[in-house]
# Entry
Amino acid sequence: LSGCTSIECLCQDDDLLTDLVYDLLRRCEKPDQDRGIEIAQELCVQVLPSLSDDRGSEIIAAVAVMTVVATIAVVLRLLGRRISAAKYGVDDFLIIVALILTYGLNINIGIAVHYGFGKHQLMLSLDHIKKFLLNDWTVQIMFASAISVTRLSLLVFYHRLFPVRRFTIVAVIMGVILIAWWISFLFAIIFSCIPVAFFWDKSIIGSCVNEHTLSWGVTGSELAVNIILLVLPIPWLWDLRLALTKKLALIGVFLLGCL
# Structure
């Protein structure tokens, strides 16, 4: 139970509001569900006007900018290959696939904004909450796929730069780790609720893993993988026959490019 003793405190308790929504979906008929949400919205907005804020346009703007930047980066990469007469490789194919997945991801984020992404959960209708959660499930799957294919493209690019046996072994091991992370992430998201549909439809009987535990696990493993992938080529760059200052500058430029 919440320890709140005022409406303002209750309206700031996200866990309590989430439980309210789920109870309405499970216990009430559609007209009563809608009326229950309307009453909660009216009471909370009176004491906390900021609950009615909508940051959807800011999200759309940020996604649009990042989509344009990603597109320009990939186009410049492919043009660079053509101008230098270098052959297109597997890494180029993978980055195109990753860009397509990113387009799908960003389109889904736009759909999420339509269903309430950028608004406080209390300000959403129960129908929009259900559609938003279904969209969120899809977004997480597409995010895992887009970022995993991008990492694989970077790893293949590394191997293109350092086609030696020792690095090949390291690259294969890292590739297995990346694919294992991808599959694990997909499995964790798809089956985070049993039955699967309970993720977005709280009117049915089901259960989900602890969201905070899952989030920390995914974030921690993702950070570890990113750091390993980032520092992976440094030993080979360090072995180049260059002056120390040039080595450090090259490593800095390389890391910046990877970021």
User: Anything to note?
Assistant: Strands lie at 193-194, 207-208. The two ends are 44 Å apart (CA to CA). Residues 79 and 85 are 10 Å apart (CA to CA). The chain has a mean pLDDT of 84.
